[in-house]
Design brief:
heterodimer; A: alpha/beta; Rossmann fold; 6-stranded parallel beta sheet; 6 strands; 18% strand; globular; B: alpha/beta; Alpha-Beta Plaits; 5-stranded antiparallel beta sheet; 30% helix
Chain lengths: 150, 228
């Protein structure tokens, strides 16, 4: 598979290295060259320096031929915008984005985007661990406490 | 009219000032507390709200639900996109307006349903282009349904139509020269109109004939990229 990963933070670096090790063709878009040090010096990923909401950069990263796009930067809105460009302009079949704000994550999930909210995921896993329950599905973890619903 | 503006930079402040002076109910959202304080001192506390306009909770507290217009004018296109998209999909705000800094983003804004965008970059670029490009056909607008372009052409001294009357030149089919600007005066164009160097012509042309019109009025030159 051709995979494009936007954001080489901890999550982006781990995912890219794992997918590259599994034989996928991985291209990473990252604005800050310093962040690429996370990959070590012997990785198999292509690098494009720039912003994932810049259409020239997305084009250069090969979005037109991508099978999957991951938007994993710290900026919720950059992830949201890049994912929508990937879907609407480049018709990328698999798109996954990270959104830190649980309510905003919910809104884009409703629009059909596979949206991961790390806080809900981690909290759910911790809750199951201390309750000695088996780990559940992402959908189960995405259910927010009533107090946080708007 | 209740207007919510998101982004308390210079654009947001100047807009808020003018809208308040017109008597509208205006709320300006700013996420930086120091900047929000400065804005409050100028606009009054009742017109400024401290919070991230991209967050649904803030949007709820700021009254997006009863807003007539939501206008996103931060310096970040991704923030303006999310504000407007939330206003439309979550709060059913009828009219949203987004500032777009990178003109190439206007297409994605339109595709997700944000029809009203303003790009200062595109406006300044097109003004600059008019200043620097004689002998060029400048798109002024498009009539969407008829596939017709409204274009402006300034005739340089080398234009092959300079010195001719309109009746003596052969225009592409279905093309009309409608207006002529000469020495800051506008004239209707008729068959007897003499074309001079320095004239600016406004023409209606079918999109697929625009190149033909360009070849006729403006001799080939270096191509200047045009804004979207």
């Amino acid at each position: 598979m051709n995979v494009v990963v936007f954001g080489c933070g901890r999550t982006g670096a781990i995912l890219s290295l794992q997918l590259a090790a599994a034989g996928h063709r991985v291209t990473i878009i990252e604005q800050n060259a310093e962040a690429l040090k996370r990959l070590g010096y012997r990785h198999n990923c292509q690098i494009v320096i720039g912003s994932g909401i810049d259409e020239d950069i997305l084009h250069k990263a090969g979005l037109a031929e991508a099978d999957a796009f991951f938007a994993l930067t710290r900026g919720d809105n950059s992830n949201i915008m890049a994912s929508q460009i990937a879907r609407l302009k480049y018709k990328v079949p698999h798109i996954c984005l990270r959104v830190a704000d649980p309510n905003r994550a919910e809104a884009y999930r409703k629009m059909g985007y596979f949206t991961i909210n790390p806080s809900a995921l981690i909290a759910g896993m911790m809750r199951d661990w201390i309750s000695e329950e088996p780990y559940q599905s992402i959908d189960a973890y995405n259910v927010l406490p009533k107090e946080m619903e708007l | 009219m209740y207007l919510v503006l998101v982004g308390g930079g210079n654009v947001g402040l100047q807009l808020a000032k003018r809208l308040i002076a017109r008597g509208h109910e205006v709320l300006l959202l700013e996420k930086d507390s120091r900047q929000a304080q400065r804005l409050s001192a100028v606009l009054g506390e009742e017109s400024v709200y401290l919070g991230d306009g991209c967050e649904i909770r803030t949007q709820k507290d700021a009254g997006f639900g009863r807003a007539d217009i939501v206008c996103a004018v931060t310096g970040e296109d991704e923030d303006n996109l999310v504000v407007c998209q939330m206003a439309k999909t979550v709060w059913n705000v009828e009219r949203v307006l987004a500032r777009v800094n990178d003109p190439s983003h206007e297409q994605i804004f339109r595709e997700i349903g944000i029809d009203d965008t303003v790009s200062a970059t595109a406006i300044i670029f097109s003004l600059l282009e008019q200043q620097i490009s004689m002998d060029e056909l400048i798109p002024v607008g498009a009539l969407a349904k008829g596939n017709i372009e409204v274009v402006e052409a300034m005739l340089g001294p080398r234009s092959p139509v300079v010195g001719k009357r309109v009746r003596d030149i052969v225009l592409p089919p279905s093309t009309n020269l409608v207006w002529l600007l000469r020495d800051d005066h506008g004239y209707g164009v008729g068959g007897d109109t003499d074309l001079q160097s320095g004239d600016t012509l406004v023409a209606l042309v079918p999109r697929e004939r625009a190149q033909e019109l360009r070849d006729l009025l403006c001799p080939a030159k270096v191509d200047v990229p045009r804004p979207q």
